[in-house]
Amino acid sequence: xxxxxxxxxxxxxxxxxxxxxxxxxxxxxxxxxxxxxxxxxxxxxxxxxxxxxxxxxxxxxxxxxxxxxxxxxxxxxxxxxxxxxxxxxxxxxxxxxxxxxxxxxxxxxxxxxxxxxxxxxxxxxxxxxxxxxxxxxxxxxxxxxxxxxxxxxxxxxxxxxxxxxxxxxxxxxxxxxxxxxxxxxxxxxxxxxxxxxxxxxxxxxxxx
Length: 208
Known about the structure:
Distance between the termini: 15 Å
Shape: globular
Strand order of the largest sheet: 2-1-3-5-4
Structural class: alpha/beta
Order of helices and strands: EHHEHHEHHEEHH
Largest sheet: 5 strands, mixed
Strand content: 5-15%
Mean pLDDT: 87
Helix content: 25-40%
Number of helices: 8
Radius of gyration: 17 Å
């Protein structure tokens, strides 16, 4: 499973024949058996195309997002936080969607894109601590990309946190690894390619 944070730009209230319902698109994308089209033209997510393509060529890959809808631009104070907790299932009062979704899909690995996914996933599951700053610790594994996998208490899947593409490759991540970026590609695209190659190699050799 590859997990993003939330659907794209809000379109509710601006509906016309050319408007995109990003919440609906999020559900439609999650139903796709071939996820390679998910990041194509999808804002900064397009930089993860190497990750989606490489993993899909080797494994069955499922895409979803922690939150299923966009935040309100206006409303009572704290409404978005309450809605976020309810959607994800953080707190005793909320069942949420993500735990049931992952239980149904039953993945061996969950790759989370960014700090928001990490924060929310930790609100639902008891995940091994990174032990330091997110951007640094995600790249402290013993491989070219620094890929690091974490255990999730009571669950059979392993969790791999990584950066979100809109912020590029964080400087703290770069400090941990050496990225020799080829001409014609961005640092982010190269990072996700190296990460994908490391992941495939480690799965196939039983390292992870």
